[in-house]
Here is the input.
Amino acid sequence: MQLPPFSARSHAFTEYASARNWIGGSWREPLDTQAESLDVPNPRWGRPMARVALSSAADVDLAVTAASAAARNWREIPIRDRAQMLYRTRDLLLRDLEELAWLISHENGKIFSEAEAEVRKAIECLEYGCSLPNLASGDQLEVSRGVSCEVVYESLGVVAGVVPFNFPIMVPMWMLPQALLGGNAFILKPSERVPLTTLRLAEIFAEAGLPAGIFSLVQGGRAVVEALCDHPGIAALGFVGSTAVARQVYGRACATGKRALCLGGAKNHLLLVPDADPAVAVDNIVASFTGCAGQRCMAASVLLAVGDVDALIEAVAERTRALRLGTDMGPVQSAAAEARIKSAIHAAERAGARVLVDGRSARPTEAGYWVGPTILDHVSPGSPAACEEIFGPVLSVIRVPNLESALTIENSNRYGNAASVYTTSGAVAQRVMDNVEAGMCGVNIGVPVPREPFGFGGWNDSCFGHGNLTGWDGYRFWTRQRKISSKWALQRDANWMS
Here is the structure.
C-alpha cells in the first residue's frame, strides 16, 4: 500500500488515511486484531480526519527484530554514504513541503505559516545531520613517542524516540539525523494525537533509499512507551513531553541499562525592564506566548514586569487584542486542552488576578477547540498561574519592584527551560544571562531556540539526563566512543607511557 497524497490546500476539512505501523519497510496493522483505535481529530473542526490503532509490546518486539537485522548492514556503510540518503531526504522534504505543512496544520491545528516554518526547521536539523561526516571524524594524537591515541564513534544498534503532539515532524528531526548518521536503526513512536505526518516521513525515507528496517513507526500510547523502555534490544531512548512523564520514562529506561535523555515541561520567564525598546519587545512578547497557540515548550508563560512598565504592558495587551483567532492563531489541540486552559484562567481570576485580555469566550466558529490569547495581570508569584505549566496562549504578568526580585522568582521555579530579558542595557542583559536558572536564554528574543549546530535542552525539571538532544551533543548521545591506543615499534627513549 502507498499512502495517498494529502490534497488539502486550505483549512477546509479533509480526511486522510488512518495511521499504521511501518516495520521492515512496509505498512502493518497491529498484531492484535482487536487492538483499540482512536480518532485523530482536526482541532479546527473538532471531528476526526483519520483513526489510529494502538499497538502493543508485541508490535515493538516485531519492530526491534526488523531493526536489529537491518542495523547490522547499516553500520557497515560508510558515514558519507549514509549521509547521501539524508541529502536525498532533504530534497524530497523540500519537494513536498507544502503538502507536509498542510497535513501538520490539519492534524495539529497550527496555522499554515507556523506549520511551514516547522517543516523548514526540520529540514535545517536534517542539514546539520548531512554535515556530520565532516565533524564526526574523531580525534587522533601522538601522546608519546611511537604511541598514538584516537577516538571513533560507533553505533549503539537499535534506538528509539517518543515525541509529542506539538511538532509532528520537527521534534523527530531533532533525533533522527544524528541517530541514523551514527549507524543506528531508529524506532519512532509518534503522538497518537498527531500520527499522520510521520506516515509521509516513512515513505519519504524509503523513497530516498533508506534500507528497510532502519526507520520504523510503532503507533500507540502508554503501552508502546513502556515496551520501548523495557525492551532489551533497544540501547537508547529519547523522549520529549511533559515533566511528569519525562521523569517516569527516564527512570524506567535507565533501570533497564539504557541511556536516556528525556526533555520535559517548562514555565519560561520573560523579564521586561523599563528601558526595553517597545519596537522590539511588544510584538516579540505577543508572538512568544501566542505562537502555536502557546503549545510549545519554548513559549513565554510568565512576564516579570520590573518597575514602571505599564505603557509596555498596555501595548502588549493592545497588540494581543488585535490578533485574529483562526487566522493569526490556531486552535488548541483537543477538547481536554481547551477545558484545562480555561479552568486555569478561571482559577487565576478567583485567586485575584486581573484578566487584562480574556480569550475564554473567543471562538471564530462553533466547531473546534478554541482559546483566545489571554493576559493575566497582577498574578501572585506563588500561585498556580505563576508556577504551573498551562501549555496554552496564556501570559501571567507578575509585578516586581526591581531586577533582583525578578531573578529570585525566576530562580525559584522548578523548571529551567528558557528565560529572556527585554532591555537596551548591556549590563542588565549580562546580569540576567549570568543569573537565570535556564538552559536556553535570550536577549530581546522571546523564543530563544538555539539553531543548529547549537544543542536544544533545558535544566532542572525540564531535562532528565545529560546533555542536549540536538547538535553535536545529539550525535554523541546516539553513538558510543571507542578509544584506540596504538604502538607499532619499540622506541629507544621509552618512558613510562611507551
In short: The radius of gyration is 24 Å. The chain has a mean pLDDT of 96.
